[in-house]
Every structure is written in structure tokens, then in C-alpha cells.
Amino acid sequence: MSRGHQHTRSAVVAVLLAVALAASGCTGGGGRASSSATERARLSAATQAVRAATPVTKLVVLMVENHSLAQMRSGMPWTFRQAGRFAYATDYRAITHPSLPNYLAIAGGSTFGVADDRPPADHPLSGRSVFGQAIARGLGAKVYADSMPAACALSNSGRYAVRHNPWTYFIDERSDCGSFDRPLEALAGDATAGNLPEAGMVVPNTCHDAHDCSLAVADRWMKRTIGTLESGPDWAQGRLAIVVTADEDDRRSGNRVLTVVLHPSLQGKVVDTRLSHYSLTRLYDEVLGAPYLRRARRAPSMATAFGLAVGR
Q1: What is the pLDDT of residues 63-101, one digit of tens each?
Q2: What is the pLDDT of residue 282?
Q3: Which residues make Cβ contacts (< 8 Å) with residue 138, sequence separation at least 6?
Q4: CATH classification of the domain holding 172
Q5: I need a labelling partner for 197 at 20 to 30 A (CA). Which of 33, 100, 252, 253 fits?
Q6: Are strands 269-271 and 181-183 parallel, antiparallel or unpaired?
Q7: How far is the C-alpha of 58 from the C-alpha of 155, rounded, in Å?
């Protein structure tokens, strides 16, 4: 165990003791037990401290389409309130244009030379993704794709855009994709049961991601979906971190996009470190305790920039 993890575990032990003391109504000076309201407040504060001190072992990323930091800040007020409440980056950049190479960058640590939005049949990619890394380590991986007609669908269907579902491109992992790349309806049950994956991604459809509909629609969808993620024990016990980002900007803001990180340990943090989608790949790897994939190896660490305790 590293010294950092030893320190984190010691902190967890300390706050667990605080929970026990708060629940019993004890005071340091041996005085009278506090009122029930005060006890509840102490218990809530101690429980929050436990959640904040718990290392992140699960990461779920949610995507928005084709909007800059400034556009998302003004057009997605609920999402930006979460940025102010938890944390966000002011200099996070997508890699390129159009959409697909950015999704591949997040999932694989490389654009693999892809410069278009064509389907998996035109871009069969060899090697591992972060999802394959998780499974190879005996951990969980899932993509939850909104409006996808069947597991690991390899072509567009209605508002489902396969170019926004990066796991479908990794042909060496096609069997796992068929098992764990699921329609969005699977998310609520996994969240409620505490079965969210160690490496997760939620892909909205082309309305809910603000590609074809407004940012206000995307903001309402984000509120519902993050509410689902936060309703289960993975969030309540501090294991889960949630990241909201955009694949790319509108080609007018230097590809700078709003990137929000939600975890109980983060309170109003603003990060000005230059980060990118490769930093997000690296964060997946840090949470998994896996080797850094491709260009993630040299990318700035989001865990370090945001001060997140990560790993197994």
C-alpha cells in the first residue's frame, strides 16, 4: 500500500470514529448528550467526511456535443451550478474535430489517425480501450448509450449515433462490447444496486447531447441522469466520481470545453491546469490502477490537478 493510500485510509478510520461519537451523542468534555437535531447534524457532517476521504474506484463520464466552455456555462445553468459546487477546469481542451476522434481519444488515448465520423466498419481498431483494460483487470466496464436499439449497435439508428459510442470501434473487444455496451435503460438499476462499473461512460442521444436540440434540453437531461447516478450507494459511499465534458467545441473557441468533476471531496474547486481528453484517459487508468494508454502516458493528471484520491 502506498503512503498516500495509507494516509487516506487513516483519514477514513478517523472520520468513522467521528461518526460513532456523533451517533452516541458523546462530547469531548463528558458533558450532557446533545439534542437529537445536533446529533443528526454531527452524523451528517461525519458521514460527508467519510465520503470525501474514500478513494475514487469508479468513474463515469457523461458527454455533451459541440459546445464551448462559454456556451455550456451560459446555456446549461444546472450543470454549471454543479461545476461551482464541486469542481471544473477552465483550460480543458478537446483534441481535434469532428466528433469521433475525440471519443476515441477519451476511450483509447489516441485518435488512431481517424479524422472523420464514419462507422466502425470503416475504422476497425486493434488494441485495448479503457473499458477493455478494466475487464482485463477483473473490474467492471459499461457504456450506457441513449436510444441505442441493441447492445453494441454498430450503425446509426434514429437519434443513436454510433460515432458517439467509442467502444464499438475496438474490434478486439467486440465480445465484451456486446455484453457490456448497453442501452441507457440499464443505468438506473446498476446505480440503485451499487453496480456501477469501474470504467463507465454515458452517451446521450443526439437530442439530449445538444447536437440536434438546445443546451437547455441537454441541461435537463444531465440533471436527471446525474441524479440517477447520485441516488445509489456508489455515490453515497464516496466511491464514484462523475465527469461531464464535451467532445469538441463549435470550432470558434480553440476547442476549450467545460469539464466538470463531481465528487464529495471537491468543494468549489477551479482548476486552471491545461488538460485534455488524454488527461481523461489517464484518469480512467488512475482509477483502474492500469498502465497509461498511449498518449495518456504524457498527459497532465486530472487526479493531481483536482486533488482526487484514486486507485485500488
Answers
A1: 999 999 999 999 999 999 999 999 999 999 999 999 999
A2: 98
A3: none
A4: 3.40.720.10
A5: 100
A6: unpaired
A7: 29
Render pLDDT for 174-186 as a digit per residue (tens, 0 to 9). 999 999 999 999 9
pLDDT of residue 311: 75
pLDDT reported for residue 36: 62
pLDDT tens digits, one per residue of 107-142: 999 999 999 999 999 999 999 999 999 999 999 999
**Residue segments in the chain with a per-residue pLDDT below the cut of 50:** 1-33, 41-44, 46
Q: Please check whether residues 38 and 65 belong to one and the same domain.
A: no
C-alpha–C-alpha distance, residues 228 and 264, integer Å: 16
> Does residue 312 lie in a domain region?
no
Q: Give backbone dihedrals phi and psi of 145, rounded to 5 degrees, phi first.
A: -110, 120
- Same domain for 95 and 45: no
* Cβ contact 293:133 at 8 Å: yes
Question: How many structural domains comprise the chain?
Answer: 2
Dihedral sign computed on CA atoms, order 171, 138, 187, 104? negative
Chain length of the chain = 312
Query: What is the model's pTM?
Result: 0.87
Closest CA to 226 of 188, 277, 266, 199: 188
**pLDDT confidence of residue 263:** 98
Helix (H, G, I), strand (E, B) or coil at 244: strand
Alpha-helical (H) ranges within 77-156 are 77-85, 99-108, 130-136
SS3 22: helix
Q: Containing domain of residue 42, as a range?
A: 3-50
Domain boundary among 50, 71, 86: 50
34 with 165, same domain: the answer is no
203 in a structural domain: yes
What are the CA-CA distances from residue 205 to residues 60, 63, 219 (Å)?
17, 10, 13
All three cell numbers of 77: 445553468
Q: Exposure of 18 by Cβ count < 10 A (0-12 exposed, 13-18 middle, 19+ buried)?
A: middle
Q: Looking at the structure, tell me whether residues 102 and 142 fall in a common domain.
A: yes
